[in-house]
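Q: What does the assembly look like in three dimensions?
Context provided by user:
Components: two
Sequences:
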Amino acid sequence: MGSTLLDAISLLAHLDPQVLAIVWLSFQVSLGATALGSLVGLLLGTWIAVAEFPGRAAVTVLLNGMMGMPPVVLGVIVYLALSRSGPLGTLGLLYSPTAMVIAQTLLVTPLIAALARQTVEDAWSDYRIELTALGFDRRLAVLTLLHDCRYSLVVAVLAGLGRAMSEVGAVMIVGGNIDGFTRVMTTAIALETAKGDLPLSIALGLVLISVVVALNALAFGLRQWAMRRYG
Amino acid sequence: MANRLSRLTKPLLPAVLSITGAMLATPAAQAGESIVLASTTSTEQSGLFGHILPLFEQATGIRVKVVALGTGQALDTGRRGDADVLLVHDRAAEDKFVAEGWGIERRDVMYNDFVLVGPKADPAKVREAKTAADAFQGIAAGATPFVSRGDKSGTHAAELRFWKAAGVDPKAWSGYKESGSGMGPTLNMAASLGAYTLADRGTWLSFKNRQDLEIVLSGDPAMFNPYGIMLVNPAKHQAVKKDAGMQLLDWITGPAGQAAIADYKINGEQLFFPSAAK
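A: Here is the predicted structure of the complete assembly.
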């Protein structure tokens, strides 16, 4: 274990361009999915928080449950949809980065929506009377609450990003782990482990963790800066 | 509050959309033609494709995207129309695939052989066995476990043939463990259990985490492991890139491809032996 870790660190000292390309693709796919997932998830979660409709409790439970959706199951579903023999087969999207973005978007949207719903619902119970008294309609209330909770909602977005960056099951199936085309950090780690090259797996794992920590640090810094700037 | 909101979000929305758009567009913008080759973990993980496919791309300008699966799964991928060309190693399943009309132009490409690996101490005395069938009988009679691929791959199919030849029902034996995964993970598992397993020589030679494992039996003619290539039938799936796919078939079974296969060595040892009909 100790020597494997040392080997891993020495591998990191000379990162080759191929590894950098893998890191870059991971960024593109997971950031793309998180951006799309946030757009839908934040609005959906906030809307559920303030809306009143029959079956709202069931929807909430379902949404919370979807946070535990195994990526590999989602991967199979997206695979079947995008396969040439599937309903969206004519698009020819299987084994492409776009397919990976689609799968990860479906993976992170419920997570972001569920976390946003909880955050906004708490705020809604605090401000409901004021907002209603001010004559805000639902749409305006949603936007206002989204804005008011924006710093807490960053955590929901980061949780989504973390889930996207770290999952391997879905991208492996819909991307195919094609060298130089759909290989991302997690699928590369799976492949190197399969080849018995454990030091390289750990080296890539260290890169993955560093990247996720760096993104979180960036978000934390931005939040501090924005809180000082805008209050 | 609402005013401040729209002031903040208005410029934000197009920014988010354009970033997303750029991210979706960049990786998709790939020049040149490409085909999808569904193949086996043994060929990918042995490093063979990394050696020969760049030569094919140089010669033809066609990019080959390799999806590495077990043979059974690779054939399924072809049946669904998600690959253009298949390179697999289970002759019986390949012939069935062609007979059912899913594949055309099946050709021999190369072969290597299966090796039986196990702990150096060899408690089941496999080294003394003359044939693979004898060896498998000896393993089932002992207490040292055997790790099976259990994933409908070509190697799994070969292993099941050996159990049959040995007259043993492995599922009834307590030492039989199915990993349900590729050759590499199966070797990792065998290494940590100190178990026996069947591997293709290519993956074994390129495998790094051997620990106490070594080859205990090889050379039985029954352990011959031939690979075949075929085009997914364009009559079944219109999206199949017939011309580019046929170029790969012609190249890999032609002089340049066959020489490239023979050239690929790890530590001076040749992994695959070209076998295309001249």
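Follow-up: Residues 243 and 249 of chain B are 10 Å apart (CA to CA).
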